[in-house]
């Protein structure tokens, strides 16, 4: 999965989060910060994580979320990492 | 704690969420023209092999200007609501279940009607006392389903299970929206909740602890709530929707489970008067007690007689209308009728049972029925007790039991007290009665402002 594809999917998720101002989703880059640039309430971050899990068909570990930074780049990196981990596990069990 | 001498409490604003009504004026029009707000409930009909009762006074999201938003993978539970009329910011909607959204809208409308300034609303002397009867069932069902059935991590339930389902969610959401700095609490007492919260807020002002309060009761739509009562076989069954709620009628076989919200703005009387507020009603007094019979469900004649005695202790009680609890359950209605008659006599007032028109709103009942009573004062009209077609010419079973101390006349002897058409008359005082499981009883007397 390409990074831009993941960002597009992420923006799609963010559009369903009512507390995120849609205007702030117009120019999202990897450097955009959820807390400082998008004013996302911290209680919403966990909802975003849960929705990202659904959208990308992955499951984060609790530590993944504890250690995740607040920039779009951090989330994209994590999604790639967790996807790779999932595929590796699938490979092992096959 | 005693009441502060000379301190009175005025009702200066009111609002609510009413079944099959877009707003308060539509509600007013329908109630006093004798309409029923009860309809077949699609959510119950969808499960008609599992549920006995098929009717409810339920509220359409459209009528409230709300649009539910569902999760991206198409769950049946709305994740949140959009306020299509832009009254409530998204950040407040995020922490609210449906009942709390109604409560917030009601609070804003009540404050607007009251004419409070922002400084008054946000004062340390402004409190919020609002609650609902039921728990946050819909929210919890979603949370538990994701955890237990789908085996998901706790976060799959979302981060708003607590704020959207906690017992005082309506008060908390209103307070975060209006930013008052006085008390924020909920008084929870089953079907006496609506009147109980307003009664408690009245005392806060009467006793000098607050100058203003947003108070009321809410019952957000929840099939779970309905199922609980349906399982007890206490819900109305077998009538056309508009004929389903039949207080006092011989054929009544249970109440209609409904949903809604009633919110009022209370203010210390002299302050309201001094700023030229429109005083909708004055609260003469509030009193509540318990049956003491050790029975969770069965209504208590003695408990109700003591309720009237307590209400009359410090204030002159001579109501032109008695707004009864009157749910249309087989025992409750006539026992209540007799406790009223044995207290007030057989002439000189009317009995109003508004549940005949909108059903039993549980935790919202006392509040919505108080709003209905304020409308009676404004209109100088008593709405009809619809479907009270035939009153029993025979004695009730409880009147034949050994130890019965009340009237030995049948319900039919009191036909003249229970109007079947809207009555125009001078109304100066109304007594409102509500009771709840657990043997809790509440009474409030309100009057027209006569100064």
Structure overview:
The complex is a heterodimer of chains A (94) and B (451). Chain A is mainly α. Chain A is built from four helices and no strands. In chain A, α1 crosses α4. The mean pLDDT of chain A is 87. Helix content of chain B is 31%, strand content 19%. In chain B, the strands form four sheets. A ten-stranded mixed β-sheet of chain B has the order 7-6-8-9-1-10-16-15-11-12, sandwiched between helices. A two-stranded antiparallel sheet of chain B has the order 2-3. Chain B has a two-stranded antiparallel ribbon with strand order 4-5. In chain B, β11 (321-323), α13 and β12 form a beta-alpha-beta unit. The chains are: A mainly alpha (94), B alpha/beta (451). Chain A binds chain B through residues 13, 16, 18-19, 41, 43-44, 46-47, 49-51, 53-55, 59, 62, 65, and chain B through 69, 71-73, 79-80, 82, 90-91, 93-94, 153, 155-156, 158-160.
Number of strands of chain B: 16
Number of helices of chain B: 15
Summarize the amount of helix of chain A as a percent range.
55-70%
Largest sheet of chain A: none
Give the name of the CATH architecture of chain A. Orthogonal Bundle
Separate helix tally of chain A: 4
By secondary-structure content and strand pairing, the structural class of chain B works out as alpha/beta
Termini gap of chain A: 22 Å
Domains of chain A (count): 1
Helical percentage of chain B: 25-40%
H-E string of chain A: HHHH
Physical arrangement of strands within the biggest beta sheet of chain B: 7-6-8-9-1-10-16-15-11-12
Query: Which outline of chain B best applies?
Result: globular
Q: Could you tell me the number of beta strands of chain A? A: 0
- Rounded mean pLDDT of chain A is 87
| Chain-averaged pLDDT of chain B | 95
Rg on CA atoms of chain A, Å: 13 Å
Q: What structural class results from the helix and strand content of chain A? A: mainly alpha
At the first level of CATH, what is the class of chain A? Mainly Alpha
């Amino acid at each position: 999965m390409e990074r831009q594809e993941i960002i597009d999917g992420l923006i799609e998720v963010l559009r369903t989060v009512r507390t995120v101002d849609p205007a702030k989703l117009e120019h999202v880059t990897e450097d955009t910060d959820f807390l400082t640039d998008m004013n996302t309430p911290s209680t919403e971050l966990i909802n975003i994580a849960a929705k990202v899990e659904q959208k990308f068909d992955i499951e984060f570990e609790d530590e993944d979320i504890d250690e995740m930074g607040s920039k779009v780049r951090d989330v994209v990196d994590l999604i790639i990492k967790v996807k790779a981990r999932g595929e590796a596990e699938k490979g092992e069990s096959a | 704690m005693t009441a502060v001498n000379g301190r009175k409490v005025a009702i200066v604003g009111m609002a609510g969420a009413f079944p099959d009504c877009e707003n308060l004026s539509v509600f007013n029009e329908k109630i006093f023209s004798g309409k029923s707000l009860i309809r077949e409930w699609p959510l119950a009909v969808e499960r008609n092999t599992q549920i006995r009762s098929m009717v409810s006074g339920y509220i359409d999201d459209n009528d409230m200007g709300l649009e539910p938003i569902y999760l991206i993978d198409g769950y049946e539970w709305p994740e949140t609501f959009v306020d299509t009329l832009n009254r409530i910011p998204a950040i407040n909607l995020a922490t609210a279940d449906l009942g709390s959204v109604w409560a917030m809208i009601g609070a804003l409308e009540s404050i607007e009607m009251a004419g409070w300034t922002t400084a008054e609303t946000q004062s340390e002397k402004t409190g919020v006392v609002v609650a609902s009867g039921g728990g946050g069932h819909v929210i919890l069902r979603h949370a538990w389903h994701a955890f237990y059935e789908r085996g998901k991590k706790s976060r799959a339930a979302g981060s708003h299970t607590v704020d959207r389902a906690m017992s005082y969610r309506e008060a908390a959401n209103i307070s975060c929206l209006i930013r008052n700095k006085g008390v924020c609490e909920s008084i929870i007492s089953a079907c006496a909740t609506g009147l109980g919260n307003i009664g408690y807020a009245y005392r806060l002002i009467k006793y000098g602890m607050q100058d203003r309060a947003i108070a009321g009761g809410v019952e957000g739509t929840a099939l779970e709530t309905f199922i609980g009562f349906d399982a007890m076989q206490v819900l109305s069954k077998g009538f056309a929707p508009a004929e389903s709620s039949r207080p006092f009628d011989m054929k009544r076989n249970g109440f209609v489970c409904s949903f809604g919200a009633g919110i009022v703005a209370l203010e210390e009387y002299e302050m309201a008067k001094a700023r030229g507020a429109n005083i909708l009603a004055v609260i003469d007094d509030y009193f509540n007690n318990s049956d003491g019979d050790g029975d969770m469900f069965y209504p208590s004649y003695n408990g109700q007689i003591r309720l009237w005695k307590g209400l009359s202790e410090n204030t002159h009680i001579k109501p032109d209308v008695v707004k009864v609890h009157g749910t249309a359950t087989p025992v409750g209605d006539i026992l209540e009728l007799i406790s009223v008659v044995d207290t007030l006599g057989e002439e000189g007032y009317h009995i109003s049972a508004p549940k005949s028109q909108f059903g039993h709103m549980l935790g919202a009942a006392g509040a919505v029925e108080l709003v209905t009573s304020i409308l009676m004062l404004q209109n100088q009209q008593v709405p009809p007790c619809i479907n009270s077609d035939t009153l029993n010419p025979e004695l009730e079973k409880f009147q034949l039991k050994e130890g019965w101390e009340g009237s030995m006349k049948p319900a039919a002897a009191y036909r003249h007290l229970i109007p079947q058409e809207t009555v125009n008359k001078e109304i100066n005082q109304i007594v409102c009665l509500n009771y709840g499981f657990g043997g809790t009883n509440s009474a409030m007397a309100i009057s027209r402002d006569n100064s």
